[in-house]
Amino acid sequence: MALYLFLGLSIALVSCSGEDGKDGIDGEMGLQGPAGQDGADGQDGNANVIVSDWMQIVWDDVNSDNPPTIGEMYIEEIPGIDDMNAFLETEGVVLVYLRRTSGFATITTLLPYDDDFYYIYAYTSTTTDPNFFNNALVIRGESVFGVTEIENNDSYMVKYVVVPANIAQANDLTNNMPKSFGEAATLFGLNQ
After folding, report:
1. Residues 6 or more apart from 149 whose CB is under 8 A from it?
2. pTM of the model
3. Which of 1-5, 156-160, 162-166, 186-190 is modeled with the greatest confidence?
């Protein structure tokens, strides 16, 4: 038994050296496989969709009725729109939403908004007449009860969403207008 132990120990000591052998030469590269199919193009991103913060309605102009029955709020500086006519003529879209909060619920809806008391809608104003606002988004409110109740009121907030023509066309906004801001946020991947 001692002989086998001695023989095993001798082989182990002799067969292990501290140096490795030289590396062999690399083999040849294999053949290139066939190219795969091109994937479908992805949907355009929302990097150029511009969304305002929720803002209170502040009338820049009201009619002379007492109380005023018509008020207009002018938003003249909209990022991404230098010329409102050109933007709209190239099929860009400006969506305007109202967030209406009452004692029991909050709704968001695409303007126009109409209930028994108020009619609120949006339009654009472009003119060369220096007496009028040019290149403006106009929020207009009408009520026989007076429009001062919805001014500076957190229960009536508005927000606009500017959608360039390429994104509007890609999302078929002509036939698929998002009725609430939640729908628009989902469609364009926006933060609510």
Report:
1. 143
2. 0.70
3. 156-160
